[in-house]
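Table S2 (text version). Query chain:
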Amino acid sequence: MMMMLKSLKKLSAVRGSAMAATAAAARRVPAVRRWMSTEPARMAQSPSFQGQTKLLIDGEFVESASGAKFATIDPATGNVITEVAEAEEADVDRAVAAARRALEQGPWGTTMAPRERGALLYKLADLVEADHARLAELESLDNGKSLGLSRMVDAPACAAMLRYWAGWADKITGKTIPVGPDHFCFTRHEPVGVVGAIIPWNLPLIGVAAKLGPALAAGNTVVLKSAENTPLSALRVAELVVEAGFPAGVINMISGLGSKAGEAMTKHMDVDKISFTGSLEVGKRVQANAAMSNLKRVTLELGGKNPSIVFDDADMDLALDNIHNGLFWNKGEACAAGTRIFVHDSIYDEFAEKAAQRAAAQTVGHPFADGTDQGALVSQVQLDKVKSYVQSAVDDGATLMTGGSQVGTEGFYMQPTVFRDVEDDMKVFKEEVFGPVMTLARFSDIDDVVRRANDTKYGLAAGVFTKDITKGYEVASKVRAGLVFWNCYHVVDVAAPFGGMKESGHGREGGAYGLMPYLEVKNVVMRVTQ
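Corresponding structure-token output:
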């Protein structure tokens, strides 16, 4: 959302003077890599957890049918926060059956006017907004991102997105189509049915709103599965769903493993649509399961290896600000993060030095510590993955300018990392890292850099920085990406489409483009003459 950019600017302003002093000191030190601390900033501890751990099925909070539970881990410490109910196939069956009843027998799908459905979404948005402090705390506790980020971006965005979609509920209309004097032809836009929604661990609250909002505005019922790494904020939203007064079965929210609950959802014969955000590998399995079961509709928002191109006429400070935030925002755990940075030969050395300085000035610390810019990565698995990509870059001959190491021994902290002298065939430049690792490559020719930018199986996002409108438009037209940021980055709004080309998925989220995948178009032709 647009508020994401404004919130990032606010967050920067709060820390402005301290960061400026740190950056000024950094500029006086020639060996960039030495600036990085290997111990995370402390002076804080994770709050104790008290909250919902059960599944929301048919309007009630229940344990899983088998009684199974799984642990959710605090990324800041590596300790167990709590155990939550683990949904399995039997629980998915219960949730889908409840959603089907609510759609075909309950008031949601039979007697409730679209405006009444919208009113419930508005009510949920109000409750999320009122509870934003608690939701932000849960988001940071479970995910490891800084509390400041959760307060300024994730929790407010969840409420704002739900409110946006509430406004769509009574504005979905069909068309009349002239087919001749003897017939009246019109279209109806009807709910697709029972929607299975699977959200990622990097942005749980935003994921909840991105899936529930359009599905409910279109009149569907939903079974939503949270990510196994981060179930807690979604479970709190489930409590607010009940408080808002949604009819039983309209929204079912379950926690569980992708290999069990997710697999059961994508294969289920009574689920009409799957909306999935996650990795490419799992996305391919989701699509295969959908095809082999009941050919359910599928929307996939998958990974990215997103290029940004910085021309020699670009405003360097503007480019540096946006490219820094475009990658290191949310610890680099973002599918649209700009990780492949192509910089024109004539400004490459200066740009690389300044980019490394900015990364080195980041404060890596406990998510609940004042002044933390980058919290902990979500899990030990993710930390190990990022470290392996860093090592591969070193082994392949890239120049490590700053970072490159784990921070501390407790929790899952990683230094912001910048590599220069990166070649296109290096593993770190080709594969999605999903962490705080920037890679810088040179270019001199516009046709060549566009070809190189497109030399990836992904096609989610791209950035271009130039004062020349002709060059900017040429790149925006030729790059194969669903989003192109021109002299900006991560300016994402719920009213605008978000999604990728190629193996970054298909379908869109946001705005009218994001609503259509949740609707079926029915053509009705009526004879009007005898």
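Notes on Table S2: Residues 1-5, 11-36 have pLDDT under 50 and may be disordered. The radius of gyration is 24 Å.
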